[in-house]
Design brief:
single chain; mainly beta; 29 strands
Length: about 325
Amino acid sequence: MPDTAADIPSVPSVVECTRPIAAGAPVVAVHMLGNEAVFVLGEEALLIAGKAEPRRVAVHGGGILCAASDGRRVVTGGDDGKVVAATATGETAVIAADAKRRWIDHVAVSGDGAVAWSAGRQAFVKPAKGEERTQEFPSSVGGLAFAPKGFRLAVAHYNGVSLWFANAAAKPEVLEWKGSHLAVTFSPDGRFIVTAMQEPTLHGWRLADGRNMRMSGYNAKVRSLSWSAGGKWLATSGSTQLILWPFQGKDGPMGKQPELLAPRDKRVVAVACHPAQDVVAVGYEDGLILLVRIGDGAEILARKPDGDAVAAIAWSASGALLAFGTEGGEAGILDLA
């Protein structure tokens, strides 16, 4: 779809700082390992790109269904029933292979090297040292997330979230809310849990007392969540503008309205917060990417719209590089240094 003047915001641009990369297949996720961008492709392989020529690394014998990263490796799950870890150098290791060759629906990684994954109603945890553990839940697992500290795993499912201490014999604690919960995230300080639901809404709990938080106002399912530096804001997709929920106070967003920035007539489909500054990279369904400053809503153009929906965005730990990929197989690395 050709660009028109109306498609491109009249804002400063850093588009010329982008190194384009032809992924050759739809991108389903992207993660940064140092200065290397790891593009997770829809089928079989990763594409690792840095200063050298991009190189494909085969990790699955079929579709790649999920991916997560701890900054040292990218862990993927596939419809071949395998969980695979890959490093920036392209070295791979099979972490697990499902005995029934079930699809690996979700993966998560912790800062201390533990890996979690799910297949159907079962979730598994493999610590950096020690034996694999498993737990069955009342319905199919909808999402996984490790707490920022400790060995607690949040498991989203129908009618709520279970908090599982995988190294303890106790049954998981359940936070209830009716409906289907399809993604889950802890706030960086570990005080809140938020899920994205089948409906166009978010739901949250304050862990200290289990108090509920319902966060609505979306016109589509929320598929992308990202915490700002220090956990002050939760950036989300799912609307024709960037929606930011405030988490600065002890009550989080309870009784407060979100900030609404970067409005357009196209839907936001991917968000990624800068690791140190109050800036959000915002990707839209027509391929546009804007860098949006939270304080005043100032915008910088990072990618022009071309009709190819943004699938994933990721910052490097330094915040100097921004990698992105699209549903149509285009990708790039923006160098802001």
